[in-house]
Amino acid sequence: MRLILLGPPGAGKGTQAERLCATHGLAHLSTGDLLRAAVKAGTELGERAKGYMDKGELVPDELVLALLVERLRESSDAFLLDGFPRNVSQAEALAAELGSIQIERVVNLELGDEEIVERLLARGRKDDQEEVIRNRLEVFRAETAPLIDYYSAKGLLVSVDAEGSIDQITNRIEDALSNGAPSA
Ligand code: B4P
User: Fold this and answer.
1) Which residues contact 99 (CB under 8 A, 6 or more apart)?
2) Main-chain phi, psi angles of 97, to 5 degrees
3) Pocket lining: 179 vs ligand 1, CB cutoff 6 Å
4) Tens digit of each residue's pLDDT (9 = 90 or more) over 50-75
């Protein structure tokens, strides 16, 4: 299975990705986690990424791709991409990298702004201050939301309501993966 988890910051991509990967035996490729690990390790790439992350901006594509591509090559049969792609140019780079390998489904988690702000303030990571969260929402709308149409046009998108308990949302995703023809 080859999946993408799409959705605004704090929609629960990382939370649901862990469960889906455990259930379906997928490699969990989270660009957020890879970037935070690079920052923590103090690598040159991490140093460059840090300022963008602290402000809630997207990290430049070439840095994200440098981190991701090797992992993707190791796991091209069964993976879940969590938080990648974040814009159309990353989606195009992904398609070029995968060549004839097809993404099977793109799960789009939908959640309103106020619930997002509440969850992220409760999470309390360094980039979870209200001003930074609001900026991340703006960045999502401007750069990432166009991927909803992009993957919908390819017939790959399924949208899932991400409000409710973690178990409820996992069940909705599993239902969407097993039942449905992808929604337009
Ligand atoms: P990410 O690490 O991708 O994180 P996120 O979008 O903030 O969170 P996610 O949706 O995974 O939510 P989570 O499960 O944690 O991005 C961080 C930053 O990295 C970006 O701002 C950007 O700078 C950079 N970045 C990452 N990928 C990039 C890329 N491809 N290109 C450029 N830059 C990139 O859930 C959030 C909280 O809600 C948690 O505390 C969780 O416990 C809680 N929660 C989850 N589900 C819940 C539920 N149902 N009810 C209540 N709480 C819930």
Assistant:
1) none
2) -65, -40
3) no
4) 999 999 999 999 999 999 998 999 88
